Amino acid sequence: MSDAFRARLLTMRAQAKTDHVIEYEGRPITQLRRSVKNAARRAGLTYSVCIYDVRQLFATVLLSRGADLAAVSRILEHTSTKMTADQYNHLLSGEKKRAVEMVPTIGQKEGVQVRRLRFVE
Length: 121
Known about the structure:
By secondary structure, this protein is mainly alpha-helical. The chain is built from 6 helices and 2 strands; from the N terminus they run αββααααα. Helix 4 (about 70-75) crosses helix 5. It is elongated, with a radius of gyration of 21 Å. Strands 1-2 form a two-stranded antiparallel sheet. It has helices at about 5-15, 30-40, 50-65, 70-75, 80-85, 90-110, and strands spanning about 25, 25-30. It starts with a helix and ends in a 12-residue tail after the last helix.
């Protein structure tokens, strides 16, 4: 947990009106599924939203910002990094390109001539 996130949680805890982790206007949220649905409706979303979408968004943001696949896999409690990679493969194409582009740099540093590789998605 980052220091900033921890500080935010402590601030929110000090302002909380209940002992519950999630509350709205001083009332505890006891039915998360219904609460997410109501929040989406109030936000004007015209498509169905479920709590799993929040999990997907979390993973998508982490991976698209360059988070380590193995770390994200552990956070999501996937049984393997392959499971995470299969689910979020479309986000990892940028990482593949970055990895391929590193090859000439590695070869040049070691004094080895490496032919330029072309990345194909």
